[in-house]
Amino acid sequence: MSVPTEHLVILAGILFSIGVAGFCLRRNLIVMLMSVELMLNAANLTFLAGSRAHSAGGEPMLEGAVFAIFVIVVAAVEASVGLALVIALYRRQQTVSVDSLNQLGDA
Amino acid sequence: MANLLFYLMGLGAVIGSLLVVTSKNPITSVLSLLGTFFCLATIYLLAGFQFLAAAQILVYGGAIMVLFLFVVMLLNLGHPEEGSGLEFMNKRRMPFAFAASAMLIVLTFAGVLGQGSAPGAVELAHMATIGDLAGLMFGSFLLPFEAASILLMGAAVAVIVLAKRERTQAVER
Prior knowledge:
The structure holds 2 protein chains of 2 kinds. By secondary structure, chain A is mostly helical. In chain A, about 70% of the residues lie in helices and about 0% in strands. Chain A contains 3 helices and no strands. Chain A has helices at about 5-25, 30-55, 65-95. The termini of chain A are far apart. The model of chain A has no long low-confidence stretch (mean pLDDT about 85). Among the domains of chain B are: about 1-75, Up-down Bundle (Four Helix Bundle (Hemerythrin (Met), subunit A)); about 140-173. Chain B has 7 helices and no strands. Chain B is globular.
């Protein structure tokens, strides 16, 4: 594939901003977590684009790929802890909407 | 040919992620996120990162998305959310959301177009195999690797504690 690095970075930027919009807009906690996953994936794509751009010619430079693996590990941890929190919340409140979580606010 | 596939997959990823954000039914969101992850895995493969593509499908497509799907079905949320129109979105935060994402896209374009010497098209000499990655992972990245394993174990313990029913309820049964 001989796509310029710029296009990879632009694709990552578009995906990241869709994730940001989803995180801000949705009320459903599960969909908000999925938007975070989308943002982490966009960051991964940027890491890989950088790794690829710096290994021009010769040997592939893989530091970015190693970082992407660490990002995947952290994403798995984040998803499992986040979903456990969602289940604990649902058990207590029978809802997954963030609008109903206002016990600590003045609303 | 490979370039065309990249643009197709990029389009698929963007459409899939838009569906994640805009669909009313959480099941549709989960499944379109799965499609987005598969498109991204294809892009990783095209870019020459073989193991990353496999890990993407195994960890994201296999583990994380099944977890999401399981939680949506366990909590019985697999039906469209109530309210008409855009009721399932937070209208007060809409201007902020659009401003933030527009700013990010502008920032990306400015950063990409503004740099002086663009790397341009790059082709890896050969695919980055798992052997290349392992050499780096168990060499200069050994300490972060161990730290990640400790993080995973801590998260496993934390999830068990969080999901456990409280003791008083357990005794009553």
